[in-house]
Amino acid sequence: MGAYILRRLLLMIPTLFGIMAVSFIVIQFAPGGPVEQVIARISGEGGNAMDRISGGGGDMGGGAAEQGDFRYRGAQGLDPAFIAKLEQQFGFDKPPLERFFTMIWNYARFDFGDSYFRDISVVDLIIEKMPVSISLGLWITLISYAISIPLGIRKAVKDGSAFDVWTSGIVIVGYAIPGFLFAIMLMVLFAGGSFFDWFPLRGLVSENWSQLSWPERILDYFWHLTLPLTAMVLSAFATTTLLTKNSFLDEIRKQYVVTARAKGLSEKQVLYGHVFRNAMLLIIAGFPAAFISAFFTGSLLIENIFSLDGLGLLGFRSVLDRDYAVVFATLYIFSLIGLVVGLISDLIYTWIDPRIDFDRRDV
């Protein structure tokens, strides 16, 4: 097992390098970089914004209009020295290859620098947004598992019955409805839209949260999470439910179950004493990956609809603002976490079922 873990850890290096390299190349051809973003802000806000960005100094007048810089859209009329200063500020005064390897070297030392347009380090910015994403990712994973596992087991036991048929219909319909569409419906119905005003529309907690007692804080926290979690859980449990059912069906049909029944064991003893551990292998081992998926990718639209300032919304806005420092740093961190979680999932497989030996398999 030690050799397998070492191989997987070493394999993370070229995998991360490839992810960052492909993303960096794509970004080079994307229009509207951070320099263009600053130029657009200057064009929209006038000389005061230009003075603030240039540090309050610099001669932006005079013959600047005749000089210009035609490499950037909207740069006509700006002093080339000012454009050069912007390029130096964002690191675009260096060749792309040098910028890429400098970024990789810094990231290897977990030095992610500062945001281009926010006066804060990337790490502090991510930490600031994590409570919302952790809340959504953790609770949606726990709730979906709490629904999916009992439902999947029941469906396997009642396979082909009326209960199995109509619950399958509900699961399929729930999976087919987009989460953001259901979120909008919930917002209209219960968040002060056209009907009821029962739940808050924005934020993870109320503005007076710090003044509340601990029981009131807990209630306030779940009060704000009710609608977002309801919108996300509709489709989150479908895959796990069907996976649980199929896993139990596969195990129930095996010879050891027939033998256990022949020995006179009750169905409950057979199901939970013998079948459960084998059938739950895939589901339990997949818990870390399910949480990471919900944590990083499952809440972007929900965060936008309910104005929850989490990592999904941070990444989306960073792409729109061309804040490449945040974009690349979050991509690196999330990719690294995803690779580590994949390794942890494999180790959980061996912990649940010692018969699995990855050392005898190719990576």
Mean pLDDT: 78
CATH fold field value of the largest domain: MetI-like fold
Percentage of residues in helical conformation: over 70%
Q: Radius of gyration, rounded?
A: 27 Å
The total strand number stands at: 0
- Our count of helices gives 17
Protein architecture, described:
- Keywords: Cell membrane, Membrane, Transmembrane, Transmembrane helix, Transport.
- It is found in: Cell membrane.
- The protein is mostly helical.
- The chain folds into 2 domains: 32-111, no CATH class; 123-360, MetI-like (MetI-like fold, Orthogonal Bundle), CATH 1.10.3720.10.
- It has 17 helices and no strands.
- The chain has helices at 2-28, 34-45, 47-53, 64-67, 80-90, 96-108, 122-157, 162-176, 179-190, 214-252, 255-262, 267-279, 281-285, 287-296, 300-305, 311-321, 324-352.
- The longest helix is centred in the middle third of the chain and has 39 residues, at 214-252.
- Residues 46-68 have low confidence and may be disordered.
Task: Please provide a brief summary of the model.
With 363 residues, the chain is an all-alpha fold. The chain has helices at residues 2-28, 34-45, 47-53, 64-67, 80-90, 96-108, 122-157, 162-176, 179-190, 214-252, 255-262, 267-279, 281-285, 287-296, 300-305, 311-321, 324-352.
Q: Features of this protein?
A:
363 residues; mainly alpha; MetI-like fold; 2 domains; 17 helices; 0% strand; globular
Q: How is the topology of this model organized?
A:
Blueprint (H helix, E strand, L loop, with lengths): L1 H27 L5 H12 L1 H7 L10 H4 L12 H11 L5 H13 L13 H36 L4 H15 L2 H12 L23 H39 L2 H8 L4 H13 L1 H5 L1 H10 L3 H6 L5 H11 L2 H29 L11
Helix pairs in contact: 1-17, 2-3, 7-10, 7-14, 8-10, 9-10, 10-12, 11-12, 14-17, 16-17
